[in-house]
Amino acid sequence: MTVGILYTWPSSTLVLFTSPNTTLNRVMTETEISFLGSLSSISGIIVTPFSGVIMDSLGRKWSCIVFNLALLASWVIITTCTMVEAILFAMFVFGLSSCMFIVLPIYVGEFCDNLIRGSMMSASMIFYGIGMLVSYLMGGLLDYKTMNYVGLSLTVLGLVLFSAMKESPLHLLKIGREREAAKSIAFYRSLKITSKEVKEEIEKLSRILNTDIVETPIEEKLELNIQEAPPTKRSQWQYLRKSHTAQRGLLVCIVLFTASIFQGLMVVQVYAEPLFQKAMPSISSTVASVLFALVCIVAGVVASYLIDMIGRRPLMIYGSLATGLSCVILGSQIQLNWGPNWLTAVLIYLYCVTYTVGAGTIPFVIAPEVFMPEVKSLASMIAMEWAFACMFVVLFIFNPLVNSLGLGAVFYIFAISCFLSTVFCFYYLPETKGLAVDEIQERLKRPR
């Protein structure tokens, strides 16, 4: 939730920072405003290559705590400094916590039952939406300093809550701590440590981890029926180079994250208040932003329910198609103004719903599901590195594009991305609902 608060914090402060009454030492320039929303993506690009090493060495729980410390440091800078350069540096430091988007889905997916795995992993995006709501409410109801102190306090609370969590059982088994892994499973599933369910889960996770020391990736063994002699441990890079299913899974994840960024809603989240002022000048931008966050939360809850009921693939395909149509209609309304102002608000909220149900949720669920444990950290890191690069580009060029082409034309660009995403997912996105990781590898072996 705290990541969502600071990620959308520029929306509440952008107008203040560009006004003569700014709380900073001077007014921000247009370039600095672009960096205010996009600097976190640059630091995300820098830190992401180290996320896999951090996850494998510290574990999932302590990785979350370390990345939260970066979030805490950024709030401390914001609450104590008034220089423009310090605020921009705080947003850069905040980006170091962006790896939470990698760690949390992996962490949750490793202790959840397969039948509810999708719903539980998508819950992180619901809490991200709650963070957006809190950020917009604070921006509209609180003064600048109070808003910052509340954000700092919530981050400290998050660190305290994380310290009470148990480590991922899969990570504990990977480092040979079977007893603690059993305690972790019992904790997360409300079972006794001696129960049959805990023993069965330990056995299942152990079978999955056994592939970590094979000489040949799993799909090559199945195709060639190789009987191997003494097994040797492969590095993650070696496994990725040899495993066609891992490469295919990585391609799918990269395309899904590209779709998630270039379908555009993340830009709307960061620049919500000024965007609503431009699109709907007769409606309070604070009220419109709060309603926008509420719609995101409700749509996230709906996606969390549907993801394990009808599957990931249909949601991504039909969600992207509906988002593309919404962007076309919304762009024409902003450009031609053929309807009343309230219709613009309705179309933005409809766009929010279709995006959240599809590209706003599915990539963050698929990425932790499609990789074997021995390559999961590396492959997730590569996919998220690409996502941050795309995010920086979109956030940095958004304001210049709006100024040169107009807001309506920008939504046409988003629509093109939506329709391309629909075509790709129809042909190449496998369904992973309720499947174990080895079963998903079988799906990835198929050409379509």
From TrEMBL:
It is found in: Cell membrane. It is a multi-pass membrane protein. Residues 1-433 form the Major facilitator superfamily (MFS) profile domain. InterPro entries: MFS_dom (IPR020846), MFS_sugar_transport-like (IPR005828), MFS_trans_sf (IPR036259), MFS_Trehalose_Transporter (IPR050549), Sugar_transporter_CS (IPR005829). The chain crosses the membrane at residues 33-55, 62-80, 86-108, 120-141, 147-165, 249-271, 283-303, 315-336, 342-366, 378-398, 410-429. It comes from the Eukaryota. Its main location: membrane. GO terms for molecular function: transmembrane transporter activity. Keywords: Cell membrane, Membrane, Sugar transport, Transmembrane, Transmembrane helix, Transport. PROSITE patterns: MFS, SUGAR_TRANSPORT_1. One of its GO terms (cellular component) is plasma membrane. This is Major facilitator superfamily (MFS) profile domain-containing protein. It comes from Euphydryas editha (Edith's checkerspot). The lineage of its organism: Eukaryota, Metazoa, Ecdysozoa, Arthropoda, Hexapoda.
